[in-house]
Amino acid sequence: MTDIKLLTKYFPELTETQQEQFRKAVEAYIVWNAQINVVSRKDMENIVEKHFLHSLGIAKVCQFTPGTEILDVGTGGGFPGIPLAIMFPETQFHLVDSIGKKIKVVNEVAAAVGLKNVTSQHERAQNVNGQYDFIVSRAVTRMLPFLEWVKGKVSRNRFNDLKNGILYLKGGDLKEELLETKMKYKLHNLTDFYEEEFFETKKVVHLPL
After folding, report:
1. Which residue intervals of the chain are DSSP H helices?
2. Mean pLDDT per segment of 10 residues, for the chain of length 209 residues?
3. Under a CB-based contact definition with an 8 Å cutoff, are residues 157 and 190 in contact?
4. Which of 94, 96, 50 lies closest to 77, judged by CA?
5. Which one of 76, 142, 143, 192 has the lowest number of neighbouring Cβ atoms within 10 Å?
6. Which residue in 8, 5, 3, 10 sits closest to 26, CA to CA?
7. Do residues 111 and 29 lie in contact, with contact meaning Cβ atoms separated by under 8 Å?
8. Strand order of the sheet with strand 186-189?
9. Alpha-carbon distance 184 to 103, whole Å?
């Protein structure tokens, strides 16, 4: 289960250190998920594909410049934040969730992996202070209420190729949901990057703010 060949298949640039960090992360999730359920038992068998590789779909859309600051809203046990923090060691990640025991898992996994670029907070997104270059999340709610949660939290100082805003992992037909926002957006189909069946309807939505 700690076989990360799927990650190196799509991200051959991963260093030996990063590969070891991903292995340690998978092992830590196996240990902690048995105590605090943050990933379904069924998904644990495919955690590399369904959680790590899925989270890294964002890395296929944007290569974060060193010094970028990212807020992960509704991170659960640390997705997409933990895999992205391993991928981008010079980017700062702040992972928040309203459920304390999930943040405990985040802290334990980050410690096991030795991540110095991850901070966490047991808090509702609406109450998080500060501004960030990007806000990432994985299907925590519909886009319109999500926009309300993160209002005013995106910095205007742009230094990445991609415009600052939201990078949202979601599946299915999103047209109606995105039309509700009355905003410009771009959809990136994960099937453009991955060949596994799991990613057939999965997308990264970029909403510049």
Report:
1. 5-10, 16-33, 41-44, 47, 54-55, 57-61, 81-87, 100-113, 143-149, 175-179
2. 87 97 96 86 88 98 97 96 98 97 96 98 96 95 93 94 96 89 94 97 95
3. no
4. 96
5. 192
6. 3
7. no
8. 118-122, 92-97, 69-73, 134-138, 165-171, 202-208, 186-189
9. 32
> How far from 22 is each of 32, 84, 124, 166, 173, CA to CA, in Å?
15, 10, 28, 25, 31
Beta bridge partners of 114: none
- For tokens 């926002």, what's the residue? 181
Residue 37 pLDDT: 84
Task: In whole angstroms, give the CA distance from residue 173 to residue 201.
Answer: 8
Structural domain boundaries enclosing 44: 5-208
Q: What per-residue string of b and e applies to 68-106 under the rule 16 or more CB within 10 Å gives b?
A: bbbbbbbbbbbbbbbbbbbbbeebbbbbbbbeeebbbbb
Copy the structure tokens of residue 200: 């057939």
Number of domains comprising the chain = 1
Look up residue 144 and give its amino acid: L
Nearest to 74 by CA among 146, 180, 178, 26: 146
pLDDT at 173 (0 to 100): 87
CA pair distance 67, 162, nearest whole angstrom:
15
Q: What pLDDT sits at residue 2?
A: 65
CB 193 within 8 A of CB 54: no
What CATH number does residue 94 fall under? 3.40.50.150
